[in-house]
Amino acid sequence: MARLFAARAVLIAGMGLSVLAFACAAFLGAGDVAAFTVICLASGAALGADMTLLPALFSARMARIAPEAGQAFGLWSLVTKFTLAIAAVTVLPLLEARGFVSGGPNTDGALWMLTLLYALVPCALKLLAIGLLASTPLEEE
Q1: How far apart are CA 77 and CA 81, in angstroms?
Q2: pLDDT tens across 66-99, in order?
Q3: Total tally of structural domains belonging to the chain
Q4: How confident is the model at residue 141 (pLDDT cuts 50, 70, 90)?
């Protein structure tokens, strides 16, 4: 798709698909296997765009502005791992505070917190990222 259209446009479309998939995940109920399958396929395609196009755009940008900046990918990796650690440190205690038990019976409040943190917060963050990407001037080849 990125060869047919601008890479940034395809990335933004993939990010939008991710928002749609995770927003739909917030409405899943027990036994919604077909809907869950569609959400998994859509979010997987969206993840593919994130994992390939974002680093490609970053690499192309770095090649133009600082061809010798190999450390930029090291920093990228560090920030990625750091954000995952921050997510775990904040999300898991919030779930525990609401009484969520993995694999066990849960209250409606615990399940709502799981839905909020798993589906809705990522949608908000992804929408923020889409806004930043759309407003950032990039030179695409």
Answers
A1: 6
A2: 777 777 878 888 888 998 899 999 999 999 999 9
A3: 1
A4: very low
Distance, CA of 133 to CA of 8 (rounded, Å): 8
Taking each helix axis from N to C terminus, what angle separates 7-25 and 33-65, rounded to the nearest 10 degrees?
Answer: 150
Query: Cβ distance 18 to 43 under 8 Å?
Result: yes
DSSP string, 21-66: HHHHHTT--TT-HHHHHHHHHHHHHHHHHHHHHHHHHHHHHHHHH-
CA 22 centroid distance within chain: 9
Segment 44-66 shows an average pLDDT of: 85
User: Tokens for 73?
Assistant: 């990918």
What digits encode the pLDDT tens for the residues 3-13?
Answer: 888 888 999 99
Q: By the 8 A CB rule, do 123 and 15 touch? A: no
| pTM of the predicted model as reported, rounded to 2 decimal places | 0.81
- Residue 54 belongs to a domain: yes
- Asked, for residue 62, whether it belongs to a domain, the answer is yes
The answer to whether the beta carbons of residues 35 and 69 sit under 8 Å apart is: no
